[in-house]
C-alpha cells in the first residue's frame, strides 16, 4: 500500500512517499481504508525533534472498515467510521481501536467528517466544560485552527451574545468573521475589548494569563492546548474567576458514551447547516506543503490529506 515513510533522528530524511507493508488487524483492532487523514500540530512537533513512533505519527482518520480483528464486535466490513489513532496514520490503510472511533454518516463529506470527529468534538466539549450558557460572551484563541474555527461557530450557534476570535495576525479577520465572530483581535493588540464570560484557550503559554485578564467577574477559562502556561492564582481571587483544564483523551477513556453523543450532535448541526467546517485538502505527496501551512500558522481551518 502507499503511504508516508518517516526518517528517524539524524537520518536527514524527514519523510517520503513509499510502498509500505499492509497492516493486519490483531485482537481488538480494526483496519480502516482511509478516505482522509489530518495534519496537525503533533506531526510538526515530531518532525522538529520529537520522538518518531515506529510507524509514524497518529491523528484523525475517516474511512471504511476493511477488516475486523479477533474479539472485535459491533463493526463490520464496509462500515464508515472516524476517530483517532496513535500511530501509522499516513497510509492508505490504518489500524484503529474501536474505543477511539465511532460511526460516520455515509452522506457526510470526508473532509467535513474529519474536521468534526476530533476538532469539532473538542470544540463542543470545551464549551460544555466551561458551563457555557446562551447569552454569555466567548473569546476563542487559536480561532482559525481546525478546532478554533469550529469553536467560534458552535459558540454562536449555541446562543453566545458576542464571540471574539483571537488570532496571531489580523489577516485572518475576514475568515473568522465568516465563521460568525463578532469581533477579531490579534494576540499582540493592547486590548482584547470588553471582558467576556468564557475564554477557550487553544494556544497556552503566555496567552493563558492574558486570557484570565480578559475574563469578566465569575468568568471561566478552559485550557485545552498542549502549550502549557502558568496562572497567577491571585488574579483569580478578586473576581471569582476559574481556570479549567481539559483533555479529550480522558473523556474518551472514561465516558465513551459522551463522545458518541456529542459526535451525533455535531452530525445534526452539520446537516442543519449550523456548522460549516473549513478545510484545505492535499494529496499524500504534498505532505511537506501541509506541514508548512501548520508550521507557519497560515492554515484556515483543518488541513488534511486524501490518500
CATH class of the largest domain: Alpha Beta
Number of E-type strands: 15
What's the average pLDDT?
93
The main sheet comes to: 7 strands, mixed
Tally of contiguous helical segments? 9
> What is the CATH superfamily classification of the largest domain?
Medium-chain alcohol dehydrogenases, catalytic domain
| CATH architecture designation of the largest domain | Alpha-Beta Complex
Radius of gyration: 19 Å
Walk me through what this model shows:
The mean pLDDT is 93. Strands 3, 4, 5, 6, 7, 14 and 15 form a 7-stranded mixed sheet that branches. This protein has a 6-stranded parallel sheet with strand order 10-9-8-11-12-13, sandwiched between helices. Strands 1-2 form a two-stranded antiparallel sheet. It folds into 2 domains: 2-104 and 277-306, Medium-chain alcohol dehydrogenases, catalytic domain (Quinone Oxidoreductase, Chain A, domain 1); 119-248, 3-Layer(aba) Sandwich (Rossmann fold), CATH 3.40.50. Helix 2 packs across helix 3 (148-157). Helix 6 (234-237) links the parallel strand 12 and strand 13. It has 307 residues and is α/β, with parallel strands linked by helices. It is 28% helix and 29% strand. It starts with a strand and ends with a strand.
Amino acid at each position: 500500500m502507499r503511504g508516508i515513510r518517516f526518517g528517524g533522528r539524524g537520518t536527514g530524511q524527514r519523510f517520503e512517499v513509499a510502498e509500505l507493508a499492509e497492516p493486519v488487524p490483531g485482537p481488538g483492532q480494526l483496519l480502516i481504508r482511509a478516505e482522509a487523514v489530518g495534519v496537525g500540530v503533533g506531526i510538526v512537533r515530531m518532525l522538529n525533534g520529537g520522538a518518531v513512533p515506529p510507524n509514524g505519527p497518529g491523528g484523525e482518520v475517516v474511512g471504511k472498515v476493511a477488516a475486523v480483528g479477533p474479539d472485535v464486535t459491533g463493526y463490520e466490513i464496509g462500515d464508515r467510521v472516524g476517530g483517532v489513532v496513535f500511530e501509522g496514520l499516513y497510509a492508505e490503510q490504518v489500524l484503529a481501536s474501536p474505543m477511539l472511533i465511532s460511526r460516520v454518516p455515509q452522506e457526510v463529506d470526508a473532509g467535513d467528517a474529519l474536521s468534526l470527529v476530533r476538532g469539532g468534538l473538542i470544540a463542543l466539549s470545551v464549551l460544555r466544560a466551561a458551563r457555557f450558557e446562551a447569552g454569555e460572551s466567548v473569546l476563542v484563541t487559536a480561532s482559525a485552527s481546525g478546532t478554533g474555527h469550529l469553536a467560534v461557530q458552535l459558540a454562536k450557534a449555541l446562543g453566545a451574545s458576542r464571540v471574539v476570535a483571537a488570532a496571531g495576525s489580523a489577516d485572518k479577520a475576514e475568515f473568522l468573521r465568516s465563521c460568525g465572530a463578532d469581533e477579531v483581535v490579534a494576540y499582540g493588540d493592547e486590548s482584547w475589548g470588553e471582558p467576556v464570560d468564557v475564554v477557550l484557550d487553544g494556544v497556552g503559554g503566555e496567552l493563558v494569563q492574558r486570557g484570565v485578564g480578559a475574563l469578566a467577574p465569575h468568568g471561566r477559562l478552559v485550557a485545552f492546548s498542549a502549550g502549557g502556561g502558568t496562572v497567577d492564582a491571585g488574579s483569580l481571587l478578586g473576581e471569582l474567576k476559574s481556570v479549567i483544564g481539559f483533555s479529550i483523551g480522558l473523556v474518551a477513556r472514561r465516558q465513551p458514551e459522551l463522545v458518541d453523543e456529542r459526535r451525533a450532535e455535531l452530525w445534526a448541526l452539520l446537516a442543519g447547516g449550523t456548522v460549516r467546517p473549513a478545510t484545505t485538502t492535499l494529496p499524500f505527496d504534498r505532505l511537506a506543503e501541509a506541514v508548512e501551512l501548520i508550521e507557519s500558522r497560515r492554515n484556515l481551518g483543518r488541513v488534511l490529506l486524501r490518500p
